[in-house]
């Protein structure tokens, strides 16, 4: 079968491309934004990438077009290929639907949902199952460093998937995760996000309850005990076993941690059932680990073994990833874009580097951030950084006004080059520069390292 994917360089659609290629299908695709790491991964698999959405791609005559949710009819002039597909009555479907029908229907699906931590937790869970010899398939919204790819078919009976609540496609406005029919589902946390789709938190809670409805009575829900929104979701109705994690005090049956984020005991109630010793920092990673351990237990991996296997977990590309060092200044790349994720990421770096200066650099690129609905949270998100630098884009709101409460601690530039110049002027040997964006950020990492070398030698 020949599959042509619209929006192939998105993390989800790129993962589907890799799985389809592994399954023996011919895969091609197109996108308007081709950037690493996904573009590198796809090309290494021999998948042809086409820039843009020209109608001329109809000449490829694939058996089916998979339409990513980046495609919209609101900007039909930018997506001529979609218009041509509709005009020709060609065969098309969504990525989640294709995945459900061709891969997931015969698997024990373990889905990881939540506003934050999906990629890291999905990667941890896949690694735990891999270390247990289960050889799972997986689809992750990033590149787990233990595997080097974001998706694979696997040869076992388990499939681990990052379960996004974002909508499926222009013709299917349900959340992606409704298609997956998991037997094991993690619900990590829940905040208002994707403001371009969901008017408020209650609307997202409804989608999460749709997910709960798809889990069988013999299934398991692994739920963050600290999250009030998730508790509201469960009160709407729950038909499966529930394992809570992250309890702040002893709670029968609940998983909790005792110790530092990089070395902690895993407790069920008052009983120690495992220990995690790894290189990761931050309480958010500790909670993600508890969730992964609780989910792995449902498919037969003992918590002691699951916890021990995390010692070899290497995290995910673009999650506090060390990019380089120049002139004694260390530069990191991270995918954080929601204010809560920015705050958590900065706090994790602060915990790691102690009294050294942290320079936070961010691009409000997500659809939610572009709308400005969370701009007032940015000073709170950045308060643990010593200096902050923001790229002003065509957001419809003024980043300078939003960051004004931070005074001289924040700097806004209208271009990536301007931002680099400001960072380099402020940087000192010993600083740690954390660049955060859910996109390519205009190649800021390489530009920044080059400019630092030019200044410091």
Walk me through the structure.
The chain has 3 domains: 2-95, NAD(P)-binding Rossmann-like Domain (Rossmann fold), CATH 3.40.50.720; 103-312, 3-Layer(aba) Sandwich (UDP-N-acetylmuramoyl-L-alanine:D-glutamate ligase), CATH 3.40.1190; 321-456, Mur ligase, C-terminal domain (Protein-Tyrosine Phosphatase, Chain A, Alpha-Beta Complex). Helix 5 (118-131) crosses helix 9 (303-309) and helix 6 packs across helix 7 (228-235). The radius of gyration is 22 Å and the shape is globular. 51% of the residues are buried. It has a 7-stranded mixed sheet with strand order 8-7-9-6-12-13-14, sandwiched between helices. A hairpin with a 2-residue loop joins strand 16 and strand 17 (271-277). The protein is built from 15 helices and 23 strands. Helix content is 32%, strand content 24%.
């Amino acid at each position: 079968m020949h599959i042509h994917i619209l929006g192939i360089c998105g993390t989800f659609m790129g993962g589907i491309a890799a799985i389809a290629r592994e399954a023996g299908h011919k895969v091609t695709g197109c996108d308007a934004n081709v950037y690493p790491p996904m573009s590198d991964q796809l090309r290494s698999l021999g998948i042809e990438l086409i820039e843009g959405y020209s109608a001329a791609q109809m000449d490829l005559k694939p058996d089916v077009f998979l339409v990513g949710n980046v495609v919209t009819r609101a900007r039909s002039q930018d997506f001529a290929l979609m218009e041509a597909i509709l005009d020709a009555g060609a065969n098309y479907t969504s990525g989640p639907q294709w995945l459900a029908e061709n891969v997931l229907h015969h698997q024990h699906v373990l889905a990881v949902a939540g506003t934050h931590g999906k990629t890291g937790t999905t990667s941890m869970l896949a690694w735990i199952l891999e270390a247990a010899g289960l050889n799972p398939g997986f689809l992750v919204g990033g590149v787990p460093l233990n595997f080097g790819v974001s998706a694979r078919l696997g040869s076992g009976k388990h499939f681990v998937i990052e379960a996004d609540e974002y909508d499926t496609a222009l013709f299917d406005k349900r959340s992606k995760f409704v298609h997956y029919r998991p037997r094991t589902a993690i619900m990590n946390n829940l905040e208002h996000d994707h403001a371009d789709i969901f008017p408020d938190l209650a609307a997202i809670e409804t989608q999460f309850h749709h997910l709960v409805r798809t889990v069988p009575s013999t299934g398991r829900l692994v739920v963050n005990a600290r999250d009030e929104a998730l508790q509201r979701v469960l009160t709407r109705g729950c038909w499966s076993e529930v394992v809570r994690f992250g309890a702040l005090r002893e709670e029968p049956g609940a998983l909790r941690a005792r110790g530092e984020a990089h070395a902690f005991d895993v407790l069920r109630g008052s009983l120690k059932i495992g220990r995690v010793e790894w290189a990761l920092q931050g309480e958010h990673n500790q909670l993600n680990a508890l969730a992964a351990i609780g989910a792995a237990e449902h498919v037969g991996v003992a918590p002691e073994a699951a916890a021990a296997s995390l010692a070899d977990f290497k995290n995910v590309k673009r999650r506090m990833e060390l990019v380089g060092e120049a002139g004694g200044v260390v530069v990191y790349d991270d995918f954080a874009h929601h204010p809560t994720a920015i705050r958590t990421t900065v706090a994790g770096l602060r915990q790691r580097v102690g009294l050294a200066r942290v320079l936070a650099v961010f691009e409000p690129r997500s659809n939610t951030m572009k709308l400005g609905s969370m701009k007032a949270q940015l000073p709170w998100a950045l308060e643990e950084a010593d200096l902050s630098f923001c790229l002003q884009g065509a957001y419809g709101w003024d980043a300078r006004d939003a960051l004004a409460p931070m005074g001289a601690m924040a700097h806004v530039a209208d271009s990536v080059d301007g931002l680099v110049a400001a960072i380099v002027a402020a940087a000192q040997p010993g600083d740690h520069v954390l660049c955060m964006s859910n996109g390519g950020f205009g190649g800021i990492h390489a530009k920044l390292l080059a400019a630092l070398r030019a200044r410091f030698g």
